[in-house]
Structure formats: C-alpha cells, structure tokens
Amino acid sequence: xxxxxxxxxxxxxxxxxxxxxxxxxxxxxxxxxxxxxxxxxxxxxxxxxxxxxxxxxxxxxxxxxxxxxxxxxxxxxxxxxxxxxxxxxxxxxxxxxxxxxxxxxxxxxxxxxxxxxxxxxxxxxxxxxxxxxxxxxxxxxxxxxxxxxxxxxxxxxxxxxxxxxxxxxxxxxxxxxxxxxxxxxxxxx
Length: 189
Fold this sequence. Notes:
The protein has 9 helices and 5 strands. It has helices at 14-25, 32-42, 46-54, 61-73, 90-102, 117-131, 138-152, 155-161, 174-188; strands at 2-8, 28-31, 80-84, 109-114, 165-169. The mean pLDDT is 90. The longest helix is centred in the middle third of the chain and has 15 residues, at 117-131.
C-alpha cells in the first residue's frame, strides 16, 4: 500500500499533482477541501461544520479528523491514499499516523512542493482569474500564508524525523514536476 501526503504552501500545486498521481497510480485522492465541501452539502457532519463557518471560526480538529477518517475508511482496501491539504497541523498529523497504524499501514512518503511565497502568491492570483475561486482574494491569501507558516509548515519537521520527506522544486511546469514525482514513485514501489 502506498500512502502519500502532497505538501506545500498555498498555490504550490498540491491539488494538481495529487490529481495526476491519483489518475496514474489509482490511489484514493483525499482532498480535505473537497471532502469538506461534500460534507457541507450532504454529510452527517455538515450541520456541525456549518455552525463554525457561519460564526467565522475555524472548524475544530476533532471534526476535521473525524471527517477525513470517515472518508479514508470508505477507501481503506485500495492501493493506498494521497492526502491533499491534510494534515494541516501537528495534532492532525499524529492522529493520521494513529489511524493508519490501527489499519496496519503508514505514510510512505511526504512530497514537499517547494515554492517561494512570492511565486505561490503570483500563481494564486493567476488562478483566480481563470477559476473564479472566492478564497483567492488578497486578504484571504495573506491569512492562508500566515496559518501555513504557523501551523502547517512545522509538520515537515515531524515527518523529517521519520525520514519520510522528499523535497521537490515546485517552480517548473506541471508536467516536469509530475515526471519527477513519477520517477520517485517508481523507486518507492
């Protein structure tokens, strides 16, 4: 079983690369954003999550963890997972490890897409022009990078201690990055 985390700052291309990996390697793509949106539409946790969002508060870790674990359980028998946008903090990372251990598996590798904050912000602004994503406005982008630096980036140290992090230059085009990931995955299999 191959269990991957695609990691990087906002705008680094995590979702794009995760979708390519999913398509090529038939891993269950667990995007926290997609799962959250689906849960809000018709999931059993949707009403509880909406209360926090409507109040302008962050959804608590316990709800996010429950949501991700529920989605993962539905796909536990497959070839593996690619986590995209999860975990976002150390508590979630440790919880993910416990969950996977309980199911006799573990994170294989963390692909860290390295990109300067300046380049990432430029990409997000360009993405907004084509995608119309409402969360790609200046203030939201600024807040997302602050949260990334304070809460998400420290997860790398946690996985580095486990010798699971592979850094990948996030500056080249999508195909070049995916080609590099494919070579690395060939070695891992």
